[in-house]
Amino acid sequence: MEFFIRVLVIYYLLITVVTFAAYGIDKRKAIRNQWRIPERVLISLAFLGGFLGAIAGMSVFRHKTKKLKFRILIPISAILHIILIIFLVITLH
Questions:
Q1: In the chain, domain spans
Q2: Contact 29, 37 (CB under 8 A)
Q3: Three-state secondary structure call for residue 65
Q4: DSSP code for 50
């Protein structure tokens, strides 16, 4: 069980960093009128566990903050992962 928790923590840390970087890269590309990361990818990263990176990226880079689907879907992804984490903690102990 301890190994599983460590792997889970490492996964969440990595996906958070990747998601945060993706938001920063997309913002820079938006400013430079270059090819962009598709919105479905940015949202998918949040649902894969990078919700903290998405929230931080939206805040730090002021990116996608006016888009309604981001303002709704990112918090939903956070709630779902928090529920999942609570469920795992309860069932593993």
A1: 2-92
A2: yes
A3: coil
A4: I
